[in-house]
What does this fold into?
Amino acid sequence: MKAQWLFSGLFHGIAENPGLLQFVDTLTVIVLILLFYVANPPFIGYLSETTGEGHYLLVNKQLIEMVVLMLFVFLPKESFQGPDLCFPPGSKLFQR
It folds into this structure.
């Protein structure tokens, strides 16, 4: 890594730790979805409330996505099931 300027130590630390990098990535997506929700609120009678997806009072799909991402951030990694549980790191499937 060649970054040497302002906050380079912080960025090197984030890049070297995959768990921290995933945490920062997820928080960034949460902030972007929140900004989209604030920029286009689903209020009834709002000027640009002509979505073809249905009628929402306060909760729309962006808010639900944000809550699910927050669950991914704050729940322990072991509570989620995925393909890595079927094939542990030492299994013969991934050895050459």
The chain has four helices and no strands. Helices lie at 8-16, 18-39, 61-74, 83-86. The chain has a mean pLDDT of 76. The radius of gyration is 20 Å.
